């Protein structure tokens, strides 16, 4: 049972909302699917007398449908779509002013760490990065000037699980907002607003789009004031998605539930198989009972997701050889598509972190991150096995 399927009203169940929320047939033509409104501007019946749309940066009907759909899936009041996940994150940071302070997880997405430290620190906003599984450390980092607590769960690439409810409480004790990047879990598996988060952020590029064919982002909130500000910055900064990309994400969300069910099922089987493998020293997957946050994940999530990380007993070079040997898994960054991807954080996504710091954070040379697609599990297993044999024996 996933995506809040226990809702009373059958029409309210996740997979039904995924197909229908925000997507009434076009009133003019009856077109069943949301049209791609490829317009920059709209006719006005008199000066200022428009029919709800005046300019596509400000609003576009394809985007409106996507925003309503995403809000519904997260169980939130308001959705806003952006040109990328980073544009969505930037919009949250637009709420801040010089002198403000932000507390964030010490293993947030690299692009998030970069925009915090290399863009916003120059605007006199301070950031502290702490282990967000350590609630005392989070409390200690919060101060008078703290306006925002930024949380990811599960995290990348070690798949640590953070307690959204506890962290939202800590943020609120300090009159700060709690924002959760829900990209890895998706609303099918986890809805942060239910646990008290104020803002949910997404890279739609990943599971929601689901087919590795677009870049987009979103923010969802229940708070009218926050949404109004997000709309103001969306229009003022202008990082809006194209109507075509909005259409593609709507196409993706329709199958989110069925895709996530398969991602979870296959990831679980592969994680269990890898955990028993003689050349694998550790597997990071919240679905395994050996995962330190397994109980929390089981309580907070409706499934354990499609990301699996594991440590090969191997040097940096041998682990590189392994990811080069896979055939079904494609060697690439990113995640969340129907095709399986594999990467080596120490040599790719996290290579910019100095080795000593990397190792201290658990990002060993032999660490492999896999985004499990929807191919047949036996083909994926056989592919990993042949690559291990080719690279390590
Ligand atoms: C990819 C990603 C982002 C950034 O999204 P883009 O669409 O690439 O801009 C943010 N957070 C997480 C967790 C991601 O995986």
From TrEMBL:
Extract the Gene3D superfamilies matched here.
Answer: Aspartate Aminotransferase, domain 1, Type I PLP-dependent aspartate aminotransferase-like (Major domain)
Q: So which cofactors does this thing need? A: pyridoxal 5'-phosphate
Enzyme Commission number: 2.5.1.48
Enzyme class per UniProt: transferase
Which PROSITE patterns does the entry link to?
CYS_MET_METAB_PP
Q: Which InterPro entries match?
A: Cys/Met-Metab_PyrdxlP-dep_enz, Cys_met_metab_PP, PyrdxlP-dep_Trfase, PyrdxlP-dep_Trfase_major, PyrdxlP-dep_Trfase_small
Q: What keywords does the record list, in alphabetical order? A: Pyridoxal phosphate, Transferase
Q: Which GO terms describe its biological process?
A: cysteine biosynthetic process via cystathionine; transsulfuration
Q: Which GO terms describe its cellular component?
A: cytoplasm
GO MF annotations in UniProt: cystathionine gamma-lyase activity; cystathionine gamma-synthase activity; pyridoxal phosphate binding
Instruction: State one Pfam family annotation.
Output: Cys_Met_Meta_PP
As for family, the record states: Belongs to the trans-sulfuration enzymes family.
This chain's protein is named Cystathionine gamma-synthase
| Record organism | Halobacterium salinarum
């Amino acid at each position: 049972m996933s995506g809040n399927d226990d809702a009373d009203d059958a029409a309210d169940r996740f997979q039904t909302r995924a197909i229908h929320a925000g997507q009434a047939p076009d009133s003019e033509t009856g077109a069943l699917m949301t049209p791609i409104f490829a317009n920059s501007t709209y006719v006005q019946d008199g000066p200022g007398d428009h029919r709800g749309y005046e300019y596509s940066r400000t609003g576009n009907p394809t985007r409106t449908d996507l925003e309503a759909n995403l809000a519904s899936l997260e169980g939130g009041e308001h959705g806003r779509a952006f040109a990328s996940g980073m544009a969505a994150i930037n919009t949250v940071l637009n709420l801040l002013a010089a002198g403000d302070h932000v507390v964030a997880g010490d293993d947030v997405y690299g692009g998030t760490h970069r925009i915090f430290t290399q863009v916003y620190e120059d605007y006199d906003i301070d950031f502290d990065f702490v282990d967000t599984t350590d609630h005392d450390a989070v409390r200690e980092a919060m101060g008078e000037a703290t306006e925002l607590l930024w949380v990811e769960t599960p995290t990348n690439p070690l798949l640590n699980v953070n307690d959204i409810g506890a962290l939202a409480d800590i943020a609120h004790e300090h009159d700060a907002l709690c924002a959760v990047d829900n990209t890895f879990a998706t609303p099918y598996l986890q809805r942060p607003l239910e646990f008290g988060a104020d803002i949910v952020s997404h890279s739609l590029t990943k599971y929601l789009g689901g087919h590795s064919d677009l870049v987009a982002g979103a923010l969802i909130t229940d708070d009218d004031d926050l949404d109004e500000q997000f709309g103001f910055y969306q229009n003022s900064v202008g990082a809006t998605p194209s109507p075509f990309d909005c259409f593609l994400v709507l196409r993706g969300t329709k199958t989110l539930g069925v895709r996530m069910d398969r991602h979870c099922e296959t990831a679980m089987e592969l994680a269990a198989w890898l955990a028993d493998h003689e050349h694998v020293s550790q597997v990071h997957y919240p679905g395994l009972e050996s995962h330190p946050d397994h109980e929390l994940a089981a309580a907070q999530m409706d499934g354990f997701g499609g990301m699996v990380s594991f440590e090969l007993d191997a040097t940096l070079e041998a682990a590189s050889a392994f990811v080069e040997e896979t055939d079904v898994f494609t060697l690439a960054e990113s995640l969340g598509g129907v095709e399986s991807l594999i990467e080596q954080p120490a040599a790719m996504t996290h290579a910019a972190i100095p080795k000593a710091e990397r190792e201290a954070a658990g990002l060993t040379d032999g660490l492999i991150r896999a985004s499990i697609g929807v191919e047949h599990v036996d083909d994926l297993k056989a592919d990993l096995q042949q690559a291990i044999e080719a690279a390590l024996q």
